[in-house]
Design a protein that fits this description.
With 115 residues, the chain is α/β, with parallel strands linked by helices. It has 6 helices and 5 strands; from the N terminus they run βααβαβαβααβ.
């Protein structure tokens, strides 16, 4: 990325990436790359921002499927659902370290702003 002079980084959802989130966040900071992640755990680890489905909401919704199956529903008969609740989390401390100013219009849309 540094050789290619990338201007930013997007990290998609992946089990491997989430287990290495600290390393990815540190590399982005070291190379002064603004990064957006698919899960809020990256922002909690010091990443700039995340936008993705709310994992807690997905687990709650999965519980309703388990309930239906335990009550006799056939899994193949249940509809496939897409996430409906997404969250935007922004880390202002990281933005400041990168020399970025987050527009107020974006901050007002965030579900959480970490100071």
């Amino acid at each position: 990325m540094t050789r290619a002079r990338a201007g930013a980084l997007t990290v998609l959802g992946s089990t491997m990436f989430i287990t290495e989130r600290r390393r990815l966040v540190d590399l982005a900071a070291k190379n002064r790359l603004p990064a957006v992640y698919a899960r809020r755990e990256y922002v909690d680890a010091g990443g700039l921002m995340s936008y993705g489905s709310n994992i807690a909401d997905l687990f709650r919704r999965a519980a309703t499927y388990v309930d239906k199956i335990l009550k006799g529903a056939k899994p193949a008969d249940l509809p496939v659902e897409q996430p409906t609740k997404f969250e935007l989390v922004i880390n202002l401390k990281t933005a400041k370290a990168l020399g970025l100013t987050i527009p107020p219009s974006l901050l007002s849309r965030a579900d959480e702003v970490i100071q």
